[in-house]
Amino acid sequence: MATARPLIGITCNYEPSREYPGERDVCKQHVAYYRALERAEALPVLLPAISEQQRLAEYLERLDGIIFSGALDLPPETYGRPPHPKTEVMSPQRFQFEWPLAKLAMAHRLPVLGICGGVQLLSTLMGGTLYQHIPDEIANALVHASGKHEDARHEVELAPGSRLAEIFGTRATVNSAHHQAIDKLGDGFVVVARASDGVIEAIEQPGERFLVGVQWHPERCPELPGQKEIFDAFAAACRRYRRGK
Q: In this structure, which topology does domain 7-244 adopt according to CATH?
């Protein structure tokens, strides 16, 4: 059916149980992600932390797109840095699932939207590096690292001709308060949004394929102009991918 809703995966957090490790570990995700996809007329699917390569390939056979969601910090050794005292690394289970899944998604040219830690994952996967704690590494950082995303709204400037500029124009109000950010950009990406303190807020891969990463959380602020439209554009790309299968 031409109007069939695309099936879009959302990566989950993995929280090991302290009392019953393994037996009562939890995979979960915030409802804002799947509500954003439902508003965009897509079918959201929560992806648990399964690392077997064959299982990951089976996911990609069925999915029309993936959101790599917000997370704790990537292991610094993935980009050749010693850990900063403020670095709080994600669970090994999540990393061992998401890293190879992102590799496969990139290789299969699946439509991808990276949010928060998701944009950092995509850039790092392609050889990028991260600032591990913005206040200690970026002089005069103004708008980041408060830790309260909803209260940290600020403007970003968008690159003309980018996908996000088609949605927002030259400027957008966003909500990000992260303590990490992209330092060296991964190969194949271009920076399409920056905050006033110079922090990279969004990246894209040029071309027809939808491969976009944003530092902020558009799923948490659908009332702000353009945020809902990010998911609309992503879902539209996933529909085109579905028709081309």
A: Rossmann fold (3.40.50)
